[in-house]
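Can anyone check this?
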Amino acid sequence: MEFCEKSTLRNVIDAGVYQDVDRVWQLFREIIEGLLHIHEQGMIHRDLKPVNIFLDSNDHVKIGDFGLATTDIIAKQQNTLLKLSVSSKSDSMDDGGGLTGKVGTALYVSPEMSDTQKRTHYNQKVDIYSLGIMFFEMCYRPLNTGMERVKILTNLRQPSIELPADFDEATLQNQKKILHLIQALIVRWLLNHNPMLRPTCKELLQSDRLPPPPLQEAELNEVLRSAIANPESKCYKHMLNAVFSQPLTPAMDFTYDSDFYRTVGNWSLRPLLAQHQVTDVLERVFRRHGAVRLTSPLLMPCDANVNESHVRLMDHSGSIVGLPYDLRASFARYVARHGVSHLKRYTMERVFRESRLHGLHPRELTACAFDVVTPNTASLVPDAEVLCVVSEIIAEFPRLQGRNFYLRINHTALLRAILVHCGIAEELHSEVHAILSDSQQEKHRKLQIQTRLCSLSLSDDTVDALNSFIQIERPYAQASSFLRKITKSKGPAASLAKKGLHEMEAIISHAQRMGCSLEPVLAVGLVYSVHQFSGVIYQVVADVRRKKRTLLDVFAAGGRYDALISRYRKPGSAPVFQCVVGISLSFDKILAAQLDGDCDNSLPTRCDVLVCSIGHKAMLREKMSMIKDLWAAGLHAELHLDATQLLEDVQNHCRANEISHLVIFKDLEATVKVKSLDAEKVMEKRLAPTEVADYLLTKISQATNRNDLQDTSLGSSKLQSLASNLSTENCTCLNSINQYGGCGSSSGNSAGALPSVNIPSVPLIILYGLKDDSFKLLL
């Protein structure tokens, strides 16, 4: 926070700034630019007045005092204005020449905020009104008494906007007439009692009524613009050389990636082992669905319209490229450019976010993605399959199963139907999407959303109608009744809504048939990267309590993105039917769940066998020969290089690193000792060196098989659940799978649920789609 010593706009106005026209325009422009930034964050200042506009040592504007946040305070302050009688400067002015608190604030409050008789939604235009009062004071002579100020500003606040006679353009002489004409036009524009007719900050900056920026700034902007427009020019190359020649200070070198080294002294191997375990489980699930691992290029060309959180880089030619914000865009570009029409892929890669602090390493997150590319434009089965993949992944991790994840689902067609129904113009749809999307990512409050929507010059009725729809979040079976206003009407809105609801219903039905256990919830306000998706959108979330508030913890998100593929297709390329649906999961959240306390499944070990020696001789040759045999047998083994340690210390090292077996050489002995270190007991066996590899291979395999019994049992229960959903009248061949460990023939069963099916010891191929709509199991 910067320190501005006793200098505010109030001091400048009282000192007669109106005589310095250039300074007036400079300060006015800087206030507008500051307000624009505030409004773009979805905020309203609500208490703009000269004493809250600070000036730093370089005479630049700093907007402060964001404390006023309710209309009740403002309304009470407005009422005090009607009761106050100001008689002299001494009893109505503070040390800086401004009115005391309550009256001073009330003079700058917009009419819609001071009207206590009717309840209205206000937006950023209330700050524009306050700006109009301040601009008038900047352009007019100082008002010496409190009574004169109240009288002139009260007249200014009338619907007719009564300017003083010596300021009004009609009474001025030619010398000042043009200047005051422009200033009066701006004042009347800003003080219009109809908020819809007041300009936004962006409209004001782009207006011809504002003089251009100072010549020095304009010249610099022109030089930069012309240099960037011609990459072959000498000026462009000098500019890039200057950018890439900046010195690296020791402070920058130390702080740049300091967040990555916070665990100095507490480094642990456990997160790395858990990472390998999670990767193995995820790959097993993805491969079960026939997916292959595919990594798309790291960098992509980047335009100026990307989100501020995207990490953008510049190379020595001046080209702007971006690190991946998600795993979807680069894959869409890969699929479009290669013309891929049939593929299931998965990947686990890092994605990046711009650091919240300037000059620090971007934040790194690990995400995994599962995508399905098909040439069938009508099928919704891939959309359902990606949901099944998420459900299966949750089932693989006991720590995730207890979090009660559910499915939030929406459709771009339904979202568009709501905007059309509310009467929002087509050209504003993308801006509304951006506001709703930002509100979810940045967790804006309802008032902030309404404020940003009103800034698009939408009426209060439109904003209220839209808000009533986006608040709908109900179990899918109950949600359709809340949308009858649209579906029962006629026109494009009804058609779009019916299409979206029909496709979501089909996807949910398909997913449940394939074993997805996620409870579906229709979330009309779910707007997730709408510029990428062109169909169903979904999130897998859980409700979590933090600081007495219930928040959504997003575990996975995705949808159908056919339109994104079309955007990346090469111009003039032959048309290819490419339908793509995918979902991204938070790898980091799965990893955190595995590391959260004691997990039911133990983490994998990096090493199973440690080869060491005790005695006076290091016996390095014998140990290297042994390690060679263990590696050849496929065992994870390593040498213990410190031959001076006691055996007890070596055993403690094994337990600390979860090494289960110890091979001990001792000088003058022909055999070796093999120790198996369990948690409860230690087993020893003496063997010839040539027998050690086979012995350990058997022991480790037996332990692994015992650990896999629970996974086998889980898989068996899943197959039994699948079998219970199959009716015998739809099965034409389930012949005696009992001989392979199954349950027997189905011929003796009546229509209804099949008996439980155990996992067979041979592969099964299930064929579906026969003429009689039946299943066949091929053994």
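Reply from J.R.: I decoded it. Confidence is low (pLDDT under 50) at residues 69-103, 712-779.
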